[in-house]
Amino acid sequence: MSTDALAGQREALAHRAHSHTPFYIVWGVLLAITAVEVLLAYERLQPVRMLSILLGLSVIKAALIILWFMHLRYEVTRMRRILMASLCVCLVLMCVFFADAFRILHLGVR
Amino acid sequence: MADMAVEHRIGHSEFEPSLFHTYSNKIGMWLFILSDSLTFGALLFSYSYNRISNPTWPTPFHSGSIINATVMTGFLLTSSLTMVLAVSASSYGNRKAAIRWLLATMFCGTMFVVLHVREWIGLINEGMTPGKNPWGAPQFGGTFFTLTGLHMLHVTIGVVVLGVMALRSMGKKFSSNDIETSGLYWHFVDLVWMFIFPLVYLMSTRIE
Fold first, then answer.
1. CA A91 from centre of chain
2. Which residues 122-181 of B have a C-beta within 8 angstroms of A?
3. What does the pLDDT look like over B32-80, one tens digit per residue?
């Protein structure tokens, strides 16, 4: 690792050490979103609608954890793009199997 | 030309600069997290596949189970906060604070595992095994125990790793880079639970 990059990271870490307020705010938001999710479980929503809302909230929580707690927002843009793009592409590709799950549900195993 | 090129490299740096402008341990941990994400992703997709294709999918989680899982989630989220405070303290060279926050993170992680084991015991006592359950589709037990079991294993390993970090910090092997790297792992474990909790628990509630 180059000396400049190391110094830059140290500076960013030192800056973060001065103020912990953002971390407490993110923690509070995460707890609040969890509370909303649990309240939704007590409502009798349609399963597909419920699933859509829960997955949307989970993605928001994941983004908060990755960006703030895992410090990805402090990393170089190149690292952010490569890591997240490769992960998202691989996970989205797995959705191809759901078509088969619906086929079994409607037609049975043939 | 070749001599000039070699001379140029030696003059500036012995090695090529890092692509991501950070230390190799952190890049290695991010790569591990990527591969582990795909493992958990595959398990979550497998669970969802079975759920969609089985109209008789069980909904065994009553109000008590949801409260228990919510408290578990609270412990994990709080452990992420204490972990990020440990990383922050260590980057500032505050060894005592870093150890204190690491121990707090271990406590929250341990509480999560204890509550999870208690819940597993309750389900097993109700007749659930990996191969069968009294409520519906038999695939539920296998997918549930595999998914939550692998996650619980990750949490347990994380608690042990943080314990090692705390012990090293008490001695002469204090390293803020190591604490930050283990913090990445811990946050990832928290991140995975943010998908398991709604998909497995909240989507399978039996609340009258």
1. 12
2. 176, 180
3. 999 999 999 999 999 998 888 888 899 899 889 999 999 999 999 999 9
Residues of B in contact with A9 (CB under 8 A): 21-22
Q: Are residues A48 and A101 in the same domain?
A: no
When divided into structural domains, chain A yields a total of: 2
Same domain, A28 and A65: yes
What pLDDT shows up at residue A6? 60
A75 contacts in chain B (CB < 8 Å) = 20-22
Same domain as A58, residue A19: yes
Least confident among A20-29, A62-71, B12-21: B12-21
> Using the beta-carbon criterion (under 8 Å), do A95 and B52 form an inter-chain contact?
no
A20 and A59, same domain (yes or no): yes
Residues of chain A positioned with their CB less than 8 A from the CB of B195: 58, 62
Listing DSSP states for B90-134 in one string gives HHTT-HHHHHHHHHHHHHHHHHHHHHHHHHHHHHHHTT--SS--S
What is the ipTM for the molecules in this complex?
0.88
Render pLDDT for B109-127 as a digit per residue (tens, 0 to 9). 999 999 999 999 999 999 9
Is residue A106 situated within a structural domain? Answer: yes
Domain of B57 in residue numbering reads as: 23-204
pTM of the model: 0.86
How many CB atoms within 10 Å of residue B105? 27
Q: Which of B165, B162, B186, B185 is nearest to B174 (CA)?
A: B165
